[in-house]
Specification:
Blueprint lengths: L2 H27 L4 H27 L2 H14 L3 E2 L1 H8 L3 H14 L3 E5 L2 E5 L8 E4 L6 E3 L15 E4 L1
Helix pairs in contact: 1-2, 3-5
Length: about 160
């Protein structure tokens, strides 16, 4: 079945579950039919839960969902991922991930770099840069954690910039 049919089936199940739940409420209120109403409520809730889980799973493997998974893992990995690392962290199939990476390549959001025979996908916008304090006069560099705004060597005002 294709994605459209599966989505329609899940939506039909969700509506059916809602109707069964409403009917279960009516039976629950009616005297002498509480057990039947409770059973209908439980079946309706199960149908709604199953349909919601299927819709969520379909969203995860949709092209947009795969791209979202890839960029989330890349953000957590300082903008540098491999297909193997993506597969391990997302649980998605390699071919699905490669298709998603190809779409991101065509959009210009990622670049490929081969290191030791392995393709690394680099997301420049997600790479974190280390910031330092640098003296424009003597050129000395200091970590941001160091207290003070003046250079201990020459007394010049320190500037914060990428290091």
């Amino acid at each position: 079945m294709n994605q459209g049919c599966l989505k329609a089936f899940a939506l039909v199940l969700m509506v059916l579950g809602a109707l069964l739940g409403l009917l279960g409420l009516v039976f629950l209120i009616a005297p002498g039919r509480a057990v039947t109403g409770l059973i209908m409520l439980v079946i309706g809730a199960v149908l709604i839960g199953f349909a919601a889980s299927r819709l969520k799973a379909m969203k995860a493997v949709s092209p947009e969902g795969v791209e979202q998974h890839i960029t989330q893992v890349a953000a957590d990995s300082n903008g540098d991922v491999t297909v193997a690392s993506l597969a391990g962290q997302t649980g998605l199939d390699d071919t699905v991930l490669r298709d998603g990476l190809d779409r991101l390549l065509r959009k210009g959001m990622v670049q490929v770099e081969v290191r030791e025979g392995t393709e690394h996908y680099l997301f420049a916008g997600l790479k974190q840069e280390k910031m330092i304090k640098k003296c424009p006069y003597c050129g000395n560099e200091y970590p941001l954690s160091q207290a003070g705004r003046t250079c201990p060597s020459c007394g010049g005002n320190l500037e914060v910039r990428p290091g």
